[in-house]
Amino acid sequence: IGLGAVGLPVFADGAGGFEHLTGPTVGYLLGFVIAAAFMGWWYAEKWGKAFLMAALGMSLGHVLILTLGWARLAMLMGAGEAFAAGVGPFVVGGLVKSLVGAGIVAAAARLRAEPRSP
To answer: pTM score, two decimals?
Structure first.
């Protein structure tokens, strides 16, 4: 977020600049930071290494991002319109990403746990 604030093109569509930290998408950006911290905690507690727990944790991370993004958009355009524009279109994609990510985490955990033969 800091790199984007100073102008590097790291935001959506290659955008950058401080104005993105005060605009309609700032809720999503804040949500990314909070969700990253949450997911780090979730994984560190070893709750994220089994598929179902990883999927749940990742889904909760998406909920955090979308909720904070929706809250900011709702201030600008109303709750219903904000949900239709800023949450609804991303729910299925978030769920798919959570399931794929959970599969990767669970597979990696299994690979690390398997004894290696010489």
So the answer is: 0.86
Other residues' Cβ atoms within 10 Å of the Cβ of residue 59: 17
* Residue 116 CA to its chain's centroid (Å): 34
| Residue from 86, 80, 45, 44 nearest 62 by CA | 86
**Residue 87 token pair:** 């949450």
Asked if residues 70 and 27 have their Cβ atoms less than 8 Å apart, the reply is yes
Q: Are 9 and 16 in contact (CB under 8 A)?
A: yes
- Give the residue among 82, 85, 81, 64 at the shortest CA–CA distance from 72: 82
d(CA 97, CA 118): 36
Amino acid at 64: L
Strand, helix or coil for residue 15:
strand
Collapse the DSSP code of 11 into the 3-class scheme (helix H, G, I; strand E, B; otherwise coil) and give the result: strand
Where do runs of H (alpha helix) occur along the chain? 2-5, 26-44, 51-77, 79-86, 88-113
Beta strand ranges found along the chain (DSSP E): none
Query: Tens of pLDDT along 71-89?
Result: 999 999 999 999 999 999 9
